Amino acid sequence: MRKLLVKLSGHIFDQDELVKRYVKVIRFILDSCPDCKIVFVCGGGSIARRYVSILRDLSHNEARSDMIGIMVSRLNALTLALSIEDAYQGVPSNIDEFLKAYSTSRVVFCGGLQPGQSTATVAMILAEITGTRDVVFASNIDAVYDKDPMKHKDAKKLEKVTLSELENVLSKETDVHAGTYPLLDLWAINIARRARIRIFLYNCREPEKLIDIVLHGTGYGTLIVPD
Predict the structure, then answer these.
(1) Which of 51, 100, 129, 188 is such that its CA lies 20 to 30 A from the CA of 194?
(2) Run means of pLDDT, 10 residues per run, the chain, 227 residues
(3) Are 149 and 214 in contact (CB under 8 A)?
């Protein structure tokens, strides 16, 4: 079977209608690609960041803040799992549970796994474990740019970058507190590099592009490739 992994930004779950559109898209992909075996990893979104902020203000440490974010990401994953008839009807909380779920279903939805680990890293770990070489990132940005497009009007969109080039672009993003992980943190990049994973990045607010990427290999904003 064709193996795929899709990392869904938590921003998707900030809008009810967007979640509904993703459910339709996922159902369409499963119907159109019966030989696909897909894992979805969901982020926590604004709800996770809200709880993280509350805990931080109450002087809790980052590990505990991460734990609440993980719970929210798993709730997001469960929301989709319960909406997809062919999906594994649960959310794995560790690698052993994931492997059992993966062996019994075409589609598995996951959230975070442990404190100090972004859902981007979770996505890379699960891709490596399952031998999945193609990962799709539904992000809150439409592509990788040579510098922050929110701060620089002359930022240039990059259609294809290597992991090393991406590291250079992200080098100024040093904030790795709970709820504020960058697009790909160093751990995720290193796993993608050693596992020779390709990453197709697109804007999470355009769910129909996931169909183009999975079925036709088009529609992504940036293709990130191993060095």
Answers:
(1) 100
(2) 95 96 98 96 90 78 82 97 96 98 97 92 98 96 85 90 91 46 82 97 97 96 95
(3) no
Q: Is 158 helix (H, G, I), strand (E, B) or coil?
A: strand
CATH architecture, range 2-225: 3-Layer(aba) Sandwich (3.40)
Angstrom CA distances, 185 to 60, 90, 189, 195, 219, stand at 23, 27, 6, 16, 24
**Residue linked to tokens 């709730």:** 75
| DSSP 8-state code for residue 12 | G
Q: Three-class SS of residue 57?
A: helix
The residue extents of the domains of the chain are 2-225
d(Cα 136, Cα 132) in Å, to the nearest integer? 11
CA 50/CA 151 separation, integer angstroms: 25
d(CA 87, CA 10): 19
pLDDT in tens, 58-74: 866 777 788 888 999 99
Query: Taking a C-beta distance cutoff of 8 angstroms, is the pair 3, 132 a contact?
Result: yes
Q: Tokens standing for 76?
A: 């997001």
